[in-house]
Amino acid sequence: MLRHEFRPGRAVAGLTMLVLAGGYAGDAAGDWEAPWTFFLPVFLGGLWLATTATWAAYMLRRRRDARKASTENMEAPASTKGSHAIK
To answer: pTM (2 decimals)?
Structure first.
């Protein structure tokens, strides 16, 4: 059993930051001459993917919860006879 809910958006954002850190480390060490055009698209693309993954996970979770609630409530409603009568 999972201890917490999986958050794909956070995982994608973390991987994006690791890629950026590797690029900066390679550039700082002099092993790789990274152009600035590498960092900006990776950063923005990673944020876009993280947002998309977060949105998709939210929609799936919402759908799953609605389905679960509808299967738990399959009985007929309780009788309301006389509940609106004037006292």
So the answer is: 0.66
Contact 26, 73 (CB under 8 A): no
pLDDT score of 74: 65
- Cβ atoms 39, 19 nearer than 8 A: no
d(CA 22, CA 19): 5
Full DSSP string of 11-56: HHHHHHHHHHHHHHHHHHHTS----HHHHHHHHHHHHHHHHHHHHH
Asked if the structure places residue 31 within a domain, the reply is: yes
State residue 67's pLDDT score.
78
Q: What is the pLDDT of residues 36-70, one digit of tens each?
A: 888 999 999 999 999 999 999 888 888 877 777 77
Domain count of the fold of the chain: 1
